Amino acid sequence: MESWRRNPLFFWIVGLPPTLWLVLFFLVPLGLIWLFSFSDKRGIIDIELTWTLANYARSLEWLYLEIFLKSFWMAGATTVIALLVGFPIAFAISFAPPKAKPWLLLLIILPFWTNLLIRTYALIAVLRSRGFVNFGLEWLWDQGNWVLSLAGLGGYQLLGERFEPLELLYNNFAVVFGLVYVFLPFMVLPLYAALDRLDRSYIEASLDLGAGQLRSFFSVVVPMAKAGVVSGVIITFIPALGSFLQSDLLGGPDSQIIANVIERQFKSANDWPYGAALSFILMYLTFFALALRAVLSRGNRDAEGL
Amino acid sequence: MNDSAAPKPIVSIQNMSKRFAGAVTAVDQVSLDIGAGEFFALLGPSGCGKTTLLRMIAGFETPTEGALLIDGQDMSQVPPNRRPVNMVFQSYAVFPHMSVFDNVAYGLKVARTKGSEIRPRVEEALELVKLGGYGARKPDQLSGGQRQRVALARALVKRPKVLLLDEPLSALDAKLREAMQMELVRLQHSVGITFIIVTHDQSEALSMANRIAVMEGGKVRQVAPPSELYERPSSRFVADFIGKINLFEAKPLGQSGAALELEVPALGRIAVPFSGDPAKVAWVAVRPEKLRLLRQPPEDGSLVFPGTVAEVAYYGETSHVLVSGPNGHGMTVNLHNGTQETPSTLAPGDSLCCSWAPEDTLLLAD
Ligand SMILES: Nc1ncnc2c1ncn2[C@@H]1O[C@H](COP(=O)(O)OP(=O)(O)OP(=O)(O)O)[C@@H](O)[C@H]1O
Ligand SMILES: [Mg+2]
Questions:
Q1: Residue A264, H or E segment
Q2: Where are the domains of chain B?
Q3: Which residues on chain B are in Cβ contact (under 8 Å) with A222?
Q4: ipTM score of the complex?
């Protein structure tokens, strides 16, 4: 490392292309959007930089604040569910036989190979009233009735007159379900990395000292995987906050999150300055959350893995 | 093999074997009885199955065959967290997210020890390993040696019947290791718990243990107290593994009285006092410190290896002299500096005789 640092030519050759790329395609557009957020919309495509704060002021109206809150709530629920589901999965994979591990990891990232839109439409086919879940439930309902009629209870309609399909689609449940489905790998992979690194002798030491499996899991495995939990939570929460596709396709009329509002400003509403201001508020809030976490965990070396 | 087993074994290993998938026999038909209060060492080269044997006692590996009794109880159905043994791991495995106090208290809390009893017992254990006052520290604020003591206190606080230690000193530097060896012996005396320690360092085993099992390729080659192991090794492997030794191939010719006559290419025909099975003898050996260096061949019936000084290596307290004899055979002689022939008067090229008493000759099986 040291000798590379002392060789400026090598450093520039390797460092220049990615730096240029970042500046051109990341920082410059971001700067433009930032300028938009202080601009006025003049015509259909005319935007004039006036350093106005009107866009930000509008964002702070209660209507939009509510949507912000709702977005944080949905992304938070997604993150918590993904953590609860993802931890056992990551734990199981890290304990799988070495030969099976790559295949199990492949299963986890397999969905990435299919287009997000298609996967989300596939979820519609699963969740809608005439979808696979409801077909399955209806079948169970039929079987239940058949058993009851065998038992001579057929006439009482104990399971209801007709099968009522569950309303699984076009509501907040469907949105969170879709978000969990999409972001689960984001949670599982860092958790897996942390758990796989965990020295098995810590678990053995816990067993050796008399703790059972469950106690060892909660007293040793979970706290020692903290760095993985923190990174998993962050890289799930932040994109979940910004995805509009799930609420668009799976959500109901009250499932609007801030990402939908932003998307609309850039597309149908054609109000780029306002969309830009909303985007930046989201970004400031995210930064604020990250900074808060850094302050809270200062002096806590376990979380240094980030 | 268990010639000097203590009267009441606390750990009894009966014909235990462990084969891993892929047909690796890590432990091969081992039988051992370890008495209560012993300081027992498992010694052997890397990969000989020491750790596997220890982990089977702790319950982390299931024996492929054989039985294990701890304090008379069959352990085959007992999981590690219910065995009356505790282990000090080679990596220490001190929980990094807990303070020293919480590490030591963990095993007590898990066992639902009364809250009022936990603090005094933890503090007592920390005093025992000389870490009193360190309770509030986190493991990353400790040195390697201190972390190792936390691991020790954490195991001892459970008052196990047997304490298992897997190469507990291998991560320490030479000076600290020596201090900790003494410390462990002192500790074992004061708590009276049976210690089973795994090591590949023969001097560590010799200085600490009261009995040593030497392992090779999954088998136990010899079980004996340190002095017997050193003075009366039963095989070439054990003799070679414990300390330095001069080895020569030998062919037994026949018993004559109390002595066995042998044909040794390096020494000629010799007679050595021997009682045992002559057919098994394949090597003669002599420890370097049993040898004298003389300018003239002695007339007292000692055995003699004539040669010239090839090299003198000075080690402060002792000097090692390499004498090369006929047909490329060599002999190492350890001399105490200040006694006997002073090594400073020896120069490469000097002709001399190495000589030793016949009863100091070891006759070894392969
Ligand atoms: N889980 C395992 N699966 C397959 N083979 C194993 C396993 N654990 C150990 N072995 C093999 O069993 C043999 C004995 O291993 P063990 O760890 O007991 O040796 P050791 O005497 O402790 O060596 P060292 O001094 O290097 O620690 C080795 O050949 C090793 O490769
Ligand atoms: Mg080992």
A1: helix A258-266
A2: 9-233, 246-364
A3: none
A4: 0.83
